[in-house]
Design brief:
Shape: globular
Structural class: mainly beta
Strand content: over 45%
Number of strands: 37
Length: 717
């Protein structure tokens, strides 16, 4: 490493005649956001907690997975579940719940009721221009699932001059990726194409191979100075083994074996859209977008393995499932500005029709146990004994309709103050055919959500805001059509389903602000929030030991999010971001069984909810070696409870990553060291509520050396 640094220094002195690199990064107050108001808006006009990861940050991260980028946002903890699979925490504990809305250029990646916490594995990291994250509910603009956070992944636009990039990256654990992108504008037509192909083989974790291919194509046609036609298409395929979690002994001994060699996840995705934009004048613009989605998701999931050590520890069950949907939809929006009170009105309507098919069938599985103490058995290996396609766990088709209208108005009744109010009405309908109980019918969810906020900017360098916002998340349709335990099958009674589930609803109150000092060298932003959820999904044990689901849970979430940036000169940049939060059950019934000692979790902390989390980084751009960069990143996750009854904690972790890169003319070479100190840690740790329950760990990667080479060509003068 020392020889490489000396060589780079000599090269830097040789090309010392080059101009010194100038950082043109905008300050927080100058940032323009799209997601929070569905139109371009300055930070000081936006009464919500919103963060932006710009292209420079994305490019320098050279991430092999999206979580490496997303975690740079204060208030965001995106955990890696392996091979780009993931879970999220934004104003919620780390969970797989449908409380996050994922957008691609402002459009939801998935339709109502088909949330998947792994949806972002379909994203092409080499096609990203920026990422905007709104923290807290924005259902008043985007509808369902925009509760804890809304993540908008914004794609690159066509370049004016011809550009081309090609790169490769790899690590010592069998991961490799090829990536390429090109763009240009010829006359009135501009295009941008970006593709990646990732492959993982024979990694540190057994049963963890994967392959991913993505291609994004954008074409812009400038009909005239005021009218544009934009086409966006994404096609991707993904296949991954699912290694699953490991027990505590294997985790501590770094024995990264998998209990199953048959679990997998595969996905084929197509998203295409066509947008017509027109500027009527400087104060008026309209766009119309029509889109289509086509997704096929198949699994033999490791989380679907059900094993009970107290009943018959040598047997288990599993499942194979398939969830396929198509979508046909349109969004129309008009933005109008008025001189009176500097008013801006954003009005729109959307329609989405998504037919979906889903089936799941039973597997009989043999469990081979590890030698251990009685009552504390763990599984060494699962093996499929028999597949039962004739025993369906779920089998339905559904047509999902979602029609919505929304309106948001911003105005300035007095100097330095901006008021924003908005609302949205969603009319949702599911027409279904359930093959298991041979029923069909319609389930409707109608919901109006509201938001009101105010900005006060007393100085050019400082601003404050406050808001009240509502969010909601209907139950996933898979949870509706899973047969109730103890019904149907061999019981002699018809299967029963959860047709009575209602949407979870949330109310959020927050205040915040931002500050820029020392001629924009130092910036600071913060948010304090309080949010309550009602009608959340409960899993309740009944008197006969069967399980029931109900929409009746209540939770409370409160915290402080903060971000600090300091750039004393062109050579150094310091970023500090973090969250202090508390997530508790208010009223959360878990059992109706009279003999259970704990029936309601009221007052308990929610599991997988660290009180402290943060991501900070210092980056160095030496003047004596232009186009060189080096940085150290610190990720903090404090301790949290593994179980709902707050008996066992996971200690959390402090993690360090290092990144280095150098550009010489059109060639860029870089290296990332992830988990710099080779720390033993888990992305997630969980445990059941029983005294005999065992902890399971989603093991994180050992120290990883990623190296890459990239060629960048541009005719820009």
């Amino acid at each position: 490493m020392k020889k490489i640094i000396i060589l780079l220094v000599l090269v830097g002195q040789f090309i010392n005649a080059q101009k010194k690199q100038v950082d043109t990064t905008q300050t927080e107050l100058d940032n323009v956001f799209i997601t929070a108001n569905r139109t371009k808006t300055l930070r000081q006009e936006t009464p919500v907690a919103i963060s932006k990861i710009n292209y420079k940050t994305i490019d320098e991260a050279k991430a092999s997975a999206l979580f490496e980028i997303a975690n740079k946002t204060p208030g965001v903890v995106m955990i890696n579940l392996g091979n780009e699979q993931h879970a999220m925490s934004i104003r919620q504990p780390i969970s797989y719940s449908s409380y996050y809305l994922y957008l691609e250029d402002g459009l939801p990646i998935r339709p109502l009721g088909i949330f998947n916490h792994n949806a972002l594995l379909e994203i092409n990291q080499f096609n990203l221009q920026s990422i905007e994250v709104v923290k807290g509910p924005v259902s008043s603009l985007y509808g369902t699932e925009a509760v804890g956070g809304t993540v908008n992944l914004i794609s690159q636009k066509p370049s004016y001059y011809p550009e081309f990039k090609f790169g490769v990256q790899a690590d010592q654990w069998g991961y490799k990726r090829i990536q390429a992108a090109a763009g240009a504008t010829i006359g009135k037509v501009g295009f941008h194409i970006a593709g990646i192909s990732s492959l993982q083989e024979n990694s540190w974790m057994a049963q963890s191979d994967y392959k991913k291919d993505n291609l994004n194509i954008r074409v812009d046609y400038h009909i005239n100075d005021n009218t544009r036609m934009i086409s966006n298409t994404m096609v991707g395929s993904y296949y991954s083994d699912m290694s699953g979690s490991v027990n505590e002994n294997d985790f501590n001994n770094r024995t990264y074996t998998s209990t199953s060699d048959f679990t997998y996840r595969k996905s084929d995705a197509l998203r295409t859209r066509l947008t017509l934009e027109h500027d009527w004048n400087t104060n008026s613009s309209t766009y119309l977008t029509v889109y289509h989605r086509d997704n096929k998701l198949g699994q033999n999931p490791s989380y679907g393995i059900r094993w009970n050590p107290t009943v018959n520890p040598t047997t288990a069950t599993g499942e194979v499932n398939s969830n396929n949907f198509k979508s046909y939809g349109a969004v129309a929006q008009h933005t109008q500005k008025f001189d009176f009170w500097k008013t801006t009105m954003v009005s729109g309507a959307s329609y989405d029709f998504s037919p979906v098919t889903y089936w799941s069938y039973l597997l009989d599985i043999k469990a081979t146990l590890n030698p251990g103490e009685t009552g504390k058995q763990t599984v060494n290996k699962y093996e499929i004994v028999a597949e039962h396609p004739e025993i369906k766990l779920a089998d339905y088709t559904a047509d999902i309709y979602n029609t919505a209208v929304f309106e948001q108005i911003s105005f300035s009744p007095i100097a330095k103050t901006i008021v924003t109010v908005g609302g949205r009405y969603d009319a949702m309908k599911i027409k279904y055919d359930n093959a298991l109980d041979k029923s069909n019918g319609t389930k409707t969810y109608d919901k109006f959500t509201f938001k009101a906020g105010i900005n006060y900017n007393p100085f050019k360098q400082a601003g404050f805001y406050g808001n009240y916002s509502q969010g909601f998340a209907p139950p996933g349709i898979t949870s509706i059509f899973r047969a109730k335990s103890g019904t149907g099958g061999n019981t002699g009674t018809p299967a029963q389903f959860y047709y009575n589930l209602d949407p979870a609803t949330f109310e959020n109150y927050e205040v915040g602000g931002w500050l820029s000092l020392l001629k924009n060298k130092l910036s600071f932003d913060y948010a304090l929030y309080y949010m309550e959820g009602t009608n959340e999904l409960l899993s309740i044990t009944l008197e006969d030991k069967s399980t029931d689901y109900r929409s009746a849970g209540e939770t409370r979430h409160k915290g402080i999010e903060f971000g600090f940036n300091y750039k004393p000169n062109t050579q150094w940049n310091l970023r500090v971001g973090g969250t202090v939060a508390e997530h508790r059950y208010i009223d959360f019934q878990v059992s109706d069984k009279s003999t259970d000692p704990l029936q309601n979790l009221s007052g308990y902390e929610m599991p997988q909810a660290p009180r402290w989390s943060g991501n900070s980084e210092v980056t160095y751009y030496p003047n004596w070696l232009p186009n060189f960069r080096a940085g150290i990143e610190w990720q903090l996750i404090s301790s949290y409870y593994q179980d709902q009854v707050n008996t066992v904690k996971y200690a959390g972790y402090n993690l360090f990553n290092a990144r280095i890169g150098y550009k010489y003319k059109s060639i860029e070479i870089y290296g990332n060291i992830m988990n710099l100190t080779d720390k033993l840690y888990a992305y997630n740790a969980s445990r059941g509520n029983l005294a005999s329950s065992q902890s399971t760990f989603t093991a994180a990667a050992p120290r990883t050396f990623l190296v890459g080479l990239q060629y960048n060509f541009s005719l820009k003068k």
